[in-house]
Design goal:
Shape of chain A: globular
Number of helices of chain A: 16
Oligomer: heterodimer
Largest sheet of chain B: 9 strands, mixed
Shape of chain B: elongated
Number of strands of chain B: 16
Radius of gyration of chain A: 21 Å
């Protein structure tokens, strides 16, 4: 059955629908692959029964001749930031270890309603804070990729590193991710898969453990642009339980996919030529331009002048929101409670939070608390909000000259786990190309372009206008068709 | 101007008062969740996932709470902000599940307004005074800690967590406990008219944070203290009296007043330090990123305005100007929703029954509503069945009185029987003999006899001793056993005595 695990969403769905194989066969195949892949540490918990139950439901529907849904028969990985009813939901933290919600996030509900099943809860950077998947309480996730000629464990990117690792390793055909400042796109680029962060508000945040509410956005991670289009369609939709949810229809992105870019203008932002960017990344960018031109697009230079301020602004706004969002983990109602003998309320808070949060989470809570404090609020938070508005305005200005923007996803390829431990600022630079689209709430996608000389994947990023996921997906498809990227990591796990 | 002064060792001191009133918004569900808001339920039975701040839960504004805040703003003649926003006020406490309260610091929904406190000589308010209102904002209430459930631990009840409050912030315009008391009563009256808060201070639907400072008249403002969660008008006034004299004592003793938060002790009528300025929280307010700004459409504002009832000041003016009531009666009748509702219902019924304009019967109905009816009810105590106090029954009594069929005394007697038994007033008047005699024949006969038996007094009357008229009336009423219609008696006596 191993060949079934090489299939993506569309192939599985269509194969099940046609009767080439059963959904149960698919689920069993992936369940076995997950069980064998513990060396990747991609899953915090496996849920084979969930996957089988969904598969059986699909097979039963098919037997009755009923509609199977957009994800019918497709088992997926669920980032452990989404609340799943009856299944432990931890955000990869100790403070939520053992927390089992009685509710199901809107996005996961939508996916189950579309016929998908769950292989398990995927590891991630703790509370989605990190760019390498080294901040999880449940241990680092390894990328299935290795630098040519070495055995060093490589980073799958973060925070959706369990998702990227599992999809790249073919132990899941697709996975959910969340992107606050690049957490879908950067891990997708590091592992040679596709991932799209839709327009802010497309996917409901209800039931997703919050990191930075004004930036958090869920999206699919899969191995093809078509699969991303299918899965995003199943995840998205207006949700009255999320006040920031977009009250707009979900287009049929899959049906409208077209790699013909005639009449489209692709902007190349000159400010993205930053110092410290690998030559191989710059080369892949040049290649990307050539591919899009070949697909009929016109390439134009554009300017996004406030780009260099975006990352500092992000590292004020996101921690500020996080410092408040994470205040609810206090040991009172659920999750970890550390209550030494004779301790009072303040002691309980201090002990619980000291034990329950990892270093990176604490670092961001401290930064966020600081920038919101009396006397610093105007200098940091308010300034950062002004920059955020200017970054969004940069894009508005650019749309006068182009329909979408092409840029690298990351300044470097993946790096060995542990290599950036000592330097959080260098780690934060990983997101320098991803953060501006997050601040502006725009749809942005990473698609694989090529392998570098070390045999590691490089990704290209496409950023579109608000609500215009279609153009982003179309351009992604154009790149996919021309790159022919079908590299898979060699199995070592 | 208020002449309230504290007599200190160094002379007179003026007290400066501002109030922040927290009023629970009347709404079936909480500000950001669908959970019920009913008072008195078992602990933690009215808690949604949002109220308990479970991971990934999000607030969704309850439009009814927004509407009630807007209507309240309109009722205090305030500027309504068509664009407002919710902010997070961050602090840790076990009764605050999110670790922040969703409130409105930077852009409240209601801006500046005002409230009229009427002159009340007896209460120490010599003239009408307008008290400025700074703002009204909408925010979440917290839960409640229970310290008496376990020997070493505290329990948390989240039933109130997330309930919508309006915080109504006055300017520091009040200068006496009486003004502050009158302000709270008037505010309560307006909230109850509008229906945006039930004003029930015992159940915690309304409570005040009392800001007090003292100064020598004409000096700049002194340092203020804030006494939290005061839950009755009387306590508000006690807090001000206590705080003002305490602060005078501190200053005159050579000390300085600390800017601090204090608690009121109901048992002793005193206040004590809750936390000092040094311990004050840094609330790290910032716009709540889970919520969009509140943007109000003109059509929504029009609907809110159209839904407002006649408000206390307008009603009072109409009662004096159009119904001809005394200022006292007008104020008493318009103060409480229940009172004016009783009055206006009865007024309509009486005017309809008699066939006269309301203005012609308003004084009679006002006296009945404020004095006669409550008097009878009070006298009967438990014997009265309030269900029998219908507008129809009372209108029937007042109609008979207006027609001269019964006297004022008989009206009371009939109402007593109505309240005890629920019988028909006209039937009571007939069967119990509670009717005035207006039969001129019977009255004439009685008068003729009295005049014949008192020929000397008739002579004296005719000789100019007018006061004797009362004697003849009294004799006639006595002869008629008090049941003669006094108007008819007067008329016949006048005719006969020339």
């Amino acid at each position: 059955m191993t060949e079934l695990t090489n299939l993506g969403i569309k192939a599985i769905r269509d194969g099940v629908a046609k009767g080439d194989f059963t959904a149960r066969e698919v689920a069993e195949g992936f369940n076995a692959a997950v069980a064998e892949a513990s060396a990747l540490n991609a899953f915090i918990v496996a849920t084979p029964d969930h996957a089988l139950a969904a598969a059986d439901a699909t097979d039963a529907k098919r037997a009755k001749g009923e509609e199977l849904g957009a994800m019918g028969g497709v088992p997926i990985g669920m980032k452990d930031l989404f609340a799943t009813e009856g299944v432990q939901t931890t955000a990869a933290s100790h403070i939520l270890e053992g927390f089992t919600p009685h509710y199901e996030s809107t996005v996961s509900s939508n996916l189950w309603a579309a016929g998908a099943g769950m292989l398990g809860k995927l590891n991630l950077d703790q509370f989605a804070m990190g760019s390498s998947n080294e901040t999880s309480y449940f241990g680092n996730v390894s990328s299935p990729w290795r630098k040519r000629g070495t055995n060093a464990a490589m980073s799958p990117g973060g925070s959706s590193g369990g998702s990227s690792s599992a999809v790249a390793a073919r132990i899941a055909p697709a996975a959910t991710g969340t992107d606050t400042g690049g957490s879908i796109r950067q891990p997708a680029a590091f592992t040679g898969i596709c991932g799209i962060k839709p327009t802010y508000g497309r996917c409901s945040r209800w039931g997703v453990v919050a990191f930075a509410s004004s930036l958090d956005q869920a999206g699919p991670m899969a191995r093809s642009v078509e699969d991303c289009a299918i899965m995003l369609g199943a995840m998205a939709g207006f949700d009255p339980k999320d006040s920031t949810s977009l009250k707009v229809d979900v287009p049929d992105w899959e049906a409208a996919l077209s790699a013909d870019l005639n009449g489209k203008k692709v902007g190349i932002p000159r400010e993205y030529r930053m110092e410290g960017t690998d030559q191989a990344i710059l080369d892949s960018w040049e290649q990307g331009k050539a591919w899009l031109k070949d697909a009929g697009a016109e390439i134009v230079d554009v300017s996004l002048p406030h780009t260099k301020y975006a990352l500092p602004a992000y590292y004020i706004i996101a921690p500020a929101e996080a410092s408040s969002n994470l205040a609810r983990y206090d040991g009172v109602r659920y999750g970890l409670r550390d209550l030494p003998d004779g301790a009072g309320l303040q002691d309980m808070y201090a002990e619980t939070r000291a034990a329950g949060f990892g270093d990176e989470v604490k670092r961001r809570i401290l930064i966020g608390t600081y920038v919101l404090s009396a006397g610093f609020y105007d200098a940091y938070y308010n300034q950062a909000q002004k920059i955020r508005a200017l970054v969004a305005q940069d894009y508005e200005n650019a749309w006068a000259e182009c329909d979408l923007i092409l840029a690298p996803t990351t300044p470097t390829a993946s790096f060995p786990l542990g290599s950036l431990d000592a330097d959080p600022l260098t780690m934060y630079l990983n997101d320098v190309f991803a953060v501006p689209a997050s601040l502006a709430g725009l749809p942005a996608m990473s698609v694989p372009a090529m392998l570098n000389s070390d045999g590691l994947p490089l990704g290209l990023q496409l950023v579109g206008k608000a609500y215009d996921e279609q153009t982003v997906l179309d351009a992604g498809l154009a790149i996919q068709q021309r790159s022919g990227f079908d590299h898979a990591p060699e199995k070592w796990w | 101007m208020s002449n309230y002064r504290i007599q200190g060792a160094t002379g007179e001191w003026e007290v400066v008062i501002g109030l922040e009133v927290h009023a629970q918004v009347t709404s079936n569900s909480k500000l950001f969740s669908g959970a019920s808001t009913e008072f008195g339920a078992e602990p933690n039975t009215q808690v949604s996932l949002v109220d308990a701040a479970m991971p990934g839960m999000l607030p969704v504004p309850n439009a009814e709470c927004i509407r009630q805040a807007v209507r309240t703003g309109m009722a205090i003649k305030a500027e309504i902000n068509k664009w407002s926003r919710f902010d997070r006020k961050n602090y840790f406490y076990a009764d605050l599940p999110q670790g922040y309260q969703i409130s409105q610091l930077y852009h409240p929904i209601v801006g500046e307004g005002e409230l009229l406190v009427e002159a009340d000589e007896k209460a120490g308010i010599p003239e009408d005074k307008v008290i400025g209102i700074e703002r009204i904002h909408v925010e979440q209430d917290a839960g409640k800690l229970m310290h008496d459930q376990h020997p070493t631990m505290s329990y948390v009840d989240l039933n109130r967590s997330g309930v919508a409050l309006m915080e109504i912030v006055s300017k520091a315009d009040m200068r006496s406990p009486a003004e502050a008391g009158a302000y709270v009563r008037k505010l309560r009256s307006i909230l109850r008219y509008v229906g945006s808060c039930d004003g029930n201070m015992e159940e915690g639907s309304m409570r005040a944070d009392v800001n007090v400072s003292v100064r020598k008249p004409g000096d700049p403002l002194g340092t203020r203290t804030e006494t939290k969660n005061v839950n009755s008008v009387r306590f508000v006034m006690q807090v001000i009296e206590y705080e003002a004299s305490r602060q005078v004592d501190v200053i005159e003793g050579g000390g300085t007043v600390d800017q601090e938060t204090r608690l009121f002790d109901v048992a002793t009528g005193t206040t004590r330090t809750m936390r000092s300025k040094e311990d004050a929280h840094d609330y790290r307010y910032f716009p709540d990123p889970d919520l969009l700004p509140v943007e109000l459409e003109d059509s929504f504002l029009e609907e809110c305005r159209a839904s407002l009832p006649e408000l206390p000041d307008a009603k009072r003016t109409r009662y004096t100007d159009e119904l001809g009531l005394t200022p006292y009666n007008a104020r008493e009748l318009s103060a409480e929703v229940e009172t004016f509702a009783r009055f206006e219902t009865l007024l309509g019924a009486v005017a309809g029954a008699i066939g006269k304009p309301e203005a012609k019967v308003a004084t009679q109905v006002a006296n009945w509503t404020l004095s006669v009816a409550p008097g009878v009810m009070k006298m009967l105590g438990d014997e009265a069945n309030a269900e029998h106090a219908t507008a129809e029954a009372q209108a029937a009594i007042l109609k008979m009185q207006d027609a001269g069929e019964i006297s004022g005394g008989q009206a009371k007697e009939i109402y007593e029987i109505v309240l005890k038994t629920g019988r028909e007033p006209t039937e009571i008047a007939d069967t119990e003999g509670l009717k005035q005699v207006s039969d001129t024949g019977a009255i004439e006969a009685a008068i003729d006899e009295i005049l014949a038996n008192n020929a000397d007094k008739v002579e004296q009357y005719k000789g100019g001793k007018d006061k004797l008229f009362g004697f003849f009336v009294g004799q006639t009423m006595k002869a008629m056993q008090g049941k003669a219609n006094p108007g008819v008696v007067n008329q016949i006596l006048k005719d006969k005595l020339g």
